[in-house]
Every structure is written in C-alpha cells, then in structure tokens.
C-alpha cells in the first residue's frame, strides 16, 4: 500500500459526522479512487462504490436519479444488501462530474444522512463551472496531486523517524550529514525520473525497470491529452486545448519558460487573453500547473497577479523527464554538464509547492529580471522569493539580488535551492538543498468549501 497524506484527511472526515460532502478533486491516475477505497473498506463494513462515468456509458441507472428516493432505489439495484445505516455504510461516488444533477442532489442526501458519503472526480473544476445549481455550503473540495517527494520516500522504505529528523534540520536551518545528504540527493534524482504517478512509483519500487515506468508515464500523458478537452463541445476549442497541453514541455525549454502565445495557432496577433478559457480548462482538469507573473509584489500575492506572461508546468515531473530523456537516466543521475536540467528542477519545485497548498507565482520585472517562484510570507506580511538552481553556479542570481534590493517589497526571507549540502545565510538569502522543498507547507490553502 502506497502511503498518501490525504488518507488522514479522509479518515478525519469519516469520523467528523460532517454535514458537508468531502469531494476529492484531481487529475486522472493520481490515486484518488485507490486511497478512498483503501480507507473506506477499512473503516466501513458495508462499502459501496459507484463509478458514474461507467454508469453513464453503461446501464445509466443513476442518470435520472434526481431525488433522494430515486437515488436510493438506483443504489439498491447494485448494492441493496449493503445499505444498512450511516455508521456502517459508506457510499463512494466516483467520477461524480459525469452527472451534473448529482451536485445538487448531494445536499439532500447529506441532510437525510441515511449513509456516509464521499465523492471524487477528475474534471471537477470544469464540471462545477458548467453546473447551473451548486448547493452552497454542501461541499468540501480537497485537491489531490501526484505523490510528492515525501510520499515517494515512504514508498522506498524511508521511515518516518528519519523524515521527521530531516524536518527538524530544516526548521533549525542545519544541513544533513554528508552521507545522508548523498542518499537524499540520490532519492531526489530518482524522483525526477519516476515522478509521483502511483502506478509508476509502484512499478519502480517493485521492478526498478525504467522502461516499465516510462511506459506508464507515456500512457498517462496520452490520456491527459485526450481528457484535456473531453468535456469541451466545440471542436475548434478542443484542438486549441490539446495544442496548448502538448506545447508545455517545449515551452519549458525556452529561456523564459513561458507559453509562446503566437505558436498556439501560428497567429502573431493573438494575446494570452484570447486563450484564457483554454488555460483555465487545462488548470481545472488538473493536468497542468499554472504560475502567474507578478511584476510588483505585495502581500497577499493573489491581489497582484494577472493572466499575462503565465508559465505552465506538467503536473508530474517524471512525465516531463520521460518526454525529455526517454529511457536514458544518465542526464539526471550523472550530472552531465551538457544537459540543462533547469526546466525539470523548476517543475519539481512547482509540483511540490502546489501539492503543499501554495498557489504558484513568479517574479517578472523588465528592470530587475525574473525570479522562479514567489510565495506569501504571512508572518511578515510580505513575500518569499525562491530561486531554483540545477547547476554548480548556484550562488549566481542577479535577478534575485535585484529583487532583494527593492526596499518597498519588504522582503525578510529568500531561498536558493540547489544540489549542495550546506545550509547557510548570506546577504539575506538562505541556501538549502533542493530536497528541503518537501518541508514547505501552506496548510491553510489545502481545502476549499463550496
């Protein structure tokens, strides 16, 4: 069983007697159904699972279930012998977005409280946007992502005592021993190859076969390309959505790593605003991560962001490294000087920050240059710039230096992440090893209520 942090969130929900439906949102193939099934079967003797996508393509038993009585009747067709009481019966509604009317119905199912319910979906951002009647106060949305680096360590047999000891080192701004640093850096590089898709991680842990986990990543990437526009009816928009998704890896290889708008349709007069719906579609589907540009930061960052000059990252770093390097692992594991790993390192940091509750922003200023990431610093009502370095020149960062020289920004902390072991502070910048990104946490932004 692969350890997933969200299991604790699910367990707490089952024990809470909440009147809101917990809905686990996220892209396909990241383990949503697996972890709900694992926790649900362990905690409830009567476990009922309904996949609404399968129902829609099959018997359509729930297609016309628009009242609670109709829902119970439909449920009895497939699991009548398991419909007991709330404490013993869990109903897991998988792919809930397949039927829009269920978002309205769940309010009344929760009010009647005949059973315990939980739901998941892989296109919920899109579905909710297109749903006319969303019951306010009835849903708790918990966003799920591919396995992060900490979960990857657990999958590879690293124990909680060591991880907590490392967390303590991070909090105290101290480095790991040389031997432990080399071990963690080796794990981190392997994470760049394998990524966080549970099937790929499981295949790697069991077989250590690069061809096998690369095949899984390719299949999922192809599935995402198809799914990215699955619910969009307009043919022309479907093509644009898929084109933008397929452009992400090549754009990350550009110097600025930004989406090149004119390349979407080979139309130089087009601007990012012309594709705002397509961008939102991909982000809502969970297959890409969006980083918004900030030219003049203040707290909170949300009030300063715009849609222009955005960066898009794939939601899984292993998928990206597979596209770039295929079955060749030397580019990452051997520190080849001829290979620039900047886009891979940026992607893994974006993936970690997003999975840990942060929205993604970066600094882009014509005068001062570009800094990879910005996160809010609520303790100082300011922002924290983060620069990601994949090479040996990690102390060279002119844009970050210029950023810190602007007094009006009021920045108190800054980080440079690299492969180096040493942890130290110089000129207001804290230098830490890249794997310490696993301990950045913004818990206040993990769950969203509707």
UniProtKB/TrEMBL annotation:
What's a Gene Ontology MF term here? Answer: ATP binding
**InterPro entries attached here?**
AAA_14 (IPR041682), DUF4143 (IPR025420), P-loop_NTPase (IPR027417)
Question: Mind listing the UniProt keywords for this protein, alphabetically?
Answer: ATP-binding, Nucleotide-binding
Nucleotide-binding as a keyword of this entry, yes or no, is yes
**Occurrences of domain AAA (ranges):** 19-153
Segments forming domain DUF4143: 227-391
Is NAD one of the keywords? no
Pfam families registered for this protein in UniProt:
AAA_14, DUF4143
Name of the protein this chain belongs to: ATP-binding protein
